[in-house]
Amino acid sequence: MSASDNKRLKSPSAARNRAPVLAVLREHLPTSGSGEHGIHAARSMPGWQWQPSDVNPDALASITAWREHMAQQHGACENLLAPVALDVNSAWPAGWQGAAFDAIVAINLIHISPWHVTQTLMQRASEYLSATGVLFLYGPYRRHDQHTASSNEAFDADLKARDSSWGLRDLECVEAEAAASGLVLERVVEMPANNLSVIFRRRAD
Q: Quick one: pLDDT at residue 37?
């Protein structure tokens, strides 16, 4: 076992949902956490350049370790860039230009963060997405002020017990926040384990 093996975090949920997530991404991106989603997407969609990011040092180390592991097993994945430390609420890297990204993908973010993170994410997406860019969100949601499953209700209670500012968001509130930043809800896709893929697109002027 190499030193990097000890840093490669493994998520059973990531292993289960990466194929369904990729299928939705393929439909909505123009043809062209642990790091597992980034590796899977980069290898499956070689025409895209992927820039993984996280705020957690352990997650960043895991992404790096997965990237190195896959390079050893299958050769370097040139379209998967080294991860960057990114806090949505802080200044984004100086080298990133406005309207530069065709997609921003946030997996399991907005329910494990305060609401202002969602607000800032929408603002950043409006600023950094290209004219036809897509914001892709994945995770559990409430709909019409109701939980969609008892397991989600229990998960919501657990999140709030850990941090009162966390919790499952009402999809309608997320949609309204996106609209305030010029993003239009394009599609909601039901996913395994009572999760949703939610796709927003820049509103055409």
A: 58
Please list, residue by residue across 102-135, b when 16 or more beta carbons sit within 10 angstroms of its beta carbon and e when fewer do.
bbbbbbbbbbebeeebbbbbbbbbbbbbeeebbb
The top-scoring range by mean pLDDT among 14-23, 86-95, 148-157 is 148-157
Q: What is the pLDDT of residues 109-126, one digit of tens each?
A: 999 999 999 999 999 999
- Are the C-beta atoms of 180 and 105 separated by less than 8 Å? no
Contacts of residue 173, Cβ cutoff 8 Å, sequence gap at least 6 = none
Q: Under a CB-based contact definition with an 8 Å cutoff, are residues 107 and 139 in contact?
A: yes
Tell me the one-letter amino acid at 181: S
How many Å apart are CA 83 and CA 148, to the nearest integer? 34
Rounded distance between C-alpha atoms, residue 168 and residue 160, angstroms: 9
pLDDT, tens only, 36-51: 556 667 777 888 898 9
Q: d(Cα 60, Cα 182) in Å, to the nearest integer? A: 31
Helix (H) or strand (E) holding 28: helix 12-28
- φ, ψ (nearest 5 deg) of residue 58: -65, -40
